[in-house]
Amino acid sequence: MAENITSSLLGGDKNLFLRLKKYKDKQAFIIAYDKYVDQIYRFIFFKINNQAEAEDLTSQVFVKGWGYVQDGKLNDSDEYQSLKSLLYKIARNAVIDYYRTQKPTDSLDDPEQIWELADNQPDLLSQTAQGLDYEAIIMQLSRLKSEYRGVIVMRYIDQLSINEIAEVLGKTKANVRVTIFRALTALKDLVNKQN
Amino acid sequence: MTEKEIVKQLKNLQQIRANSDWQAGNRQVLLQQVFNGQTEQALAWTAQLNLIMGRVLQPTAIALMIFVFLLGGSLISWHSGAAQPGDSLYIAKRLGEKTKLTVALSDQAKTKLNLQFATERAKELALVLDETVEGTDKDQAVASLKQEFKQQVTAAKARLAKSEPVVEETVGKETEEETFFKAGVGKDNQGLDIALPAKQNLAEATAEAEELINQEDLVKAAEKLAEVEEMINQAEPQTAPEQ
Q: Chain A residue closest to B101 (CA)?
């Protein structure tokens, strides 16, 4: 009950970001965790295709995010315009560091990892035809290069705006649009080749 | 499939979420981190009391409430530190370790944590090896703990290599103590003798590594853990030799 009252008082992303920036509001951060943990986890998972590692990295993202808030980095520059883009930036950097420091032990198209993820969501595979489509999409998504996978997940699964994606990637909006177009075309080609 | 159909399928992938048990456990750890031991509920109740009653409630009563919840949070934190594989708080312990490593400021601090976590894994491994239950679960637990132990030791060695030159004079030398602590290779009943002495030596060597870590002698601690690794490799459950 306390959480619902607080959530309604705190409002959306902008309000959360403002409270974190100005007051280092702890409850706002926990609300942000509840709001974004699934998105960040999905983003990381589709990048590295390892559920356990994705969970670890997701934990790190939020711990680092809290560190940024405590250190007052949100006030330092205009680099961070929203809470969502901050978390995605940290997530993206975490994935880059992950690839630098570790050899991925699972292959990119390890069916076990993907089915383990899907098993947690039975509704996703409730109908056979749809299940097969989901499988095709997920399998081929894992075959895209990392940059394409990232923009596909951000744009079409997590529904980030072009602006937000541009902020996360540090690119122009025009550049992001082109990347998204190329990524979607590449995914379509892979899916249709498989079919 | 058209692009439109692909986009529709992609949107449906929003249903994919993190494992709920993990999410809840991780949230708990984050709460500990963010609120420094206070529970979110305590903070929310305190905030509401302040809103409703303003300055009516005595400051000492508020302090007492916060103290009670701080104590609760500290106990959870303390208990999870002693948790072993299979315990309900073990996941909190492991998440807490990862959090500590993430927030550690210096390479020195991270190295020390890596060595501490490696020691923890070695202790846990000794406990698991000691269990009488055999089977796939135990084998998987042993394999997983071994891998994690090696990861921690490797990470610590990498950081030490970056910061300090290799102490050449200690490489290759074998003291009487080290010989004594090695598994009993060469004895007649190798199946049994390797298992029991190795487990005992594992505990002792792990304790020595822990002592070295406490003394901040991280280089020697890493060397001691290398010996522990050797013992772990030799202390695998073995089938009895054929008669």
A: A60
